[in-house]
Specification:
The chain is an all-alpha fold and about 300 residues long. The chain has a single domain, classed as MetI-like fold. About 75% of the residues lie in helices and about 0% in strands. A two-stranded antiparallel ribbon has the order 1-2. The protein is globular, with a radius of gyration of 24 Å. The two termini are about 35 Å apart. The mean pLDDT is about 90.
Length: about 300
Amino acid sequence: MKTRLDRGYYWFLIPGFLLFIIFVVLPFIANIYLSFTRWSGVGVPQFIGLKNYLRAIDDFNFWLSLKNNVVIILVLTTIPTVISLFLAVFLFQYVAVKVGKTTANIFKAGFYLPQIIPVAIIGVIWKWIFQPNWGALNVILEKIKLGNLAQNWLGDPNYALGAVLLVMVWFQIGYPLVIFISALQRIDPQIYESARVDGAKGLRMFFSITLPLISPEFYVVVLTTIIYSLKIFGPIFALTRGGPGNATTVASYFSYKNFFEFSNVGYGATMSTIISLIILLITVVYIKLQNFESTEGE
């Protein structure tokens, strides 16, 4: 009977496999083909070889978009991850114990709430907050006698990317938080009891016990955040449309502009292909490094 069950489950994978082929593999292959063509979206694509890729090498705006992606990666893989890690430990080991699990769960849900709010709504709310004339941020600065710090946050190239990063950090905190709390829940409490008996306290327990034991989840958070940062589109579209100028343009939005605004589908496909290849390369290297560290630890 066990053999029959083992044989049978493959059939249940077929629908998902077919959907994966139709909606992921085939569009990706089509995108790669289009990246070697000149096409406006109408008519027959004209094959031009590597010209789009050679153009990308000398395209200042493309490299600027990648630079903005690198800044986003550095910010989103550090600030939200660190904040979420300490929040998770605080909620799980202090609030849940001293106040109650219900209170801890309420806070966890509150931090995760931005993840389920549509990006368009988030964009509208934060554009109100950053509005230069009557926005909440500038009004608060004026009320506390810091009106000289008020700025056109989304309209000034010097501040636009920083304002977008602030929104993205706020948005991102809930995702690693729930993963870290789940990781903390699988740690055997007896490990902490043994450490306390041996005299370990506070930060020593965190760095010597908690952090090593949740390292698999930590790797997952960092990798998925890097991928998210590379293909980020929604917040940029909702808040700044890549402006002012190209101050907040990222690679995915640069690809979108070539696809739908400039009718340069072939070049837009080139951008998408480059982003996809970078993501695949980072994923492979990161997984190999993780596996190497796990092997070394054994």
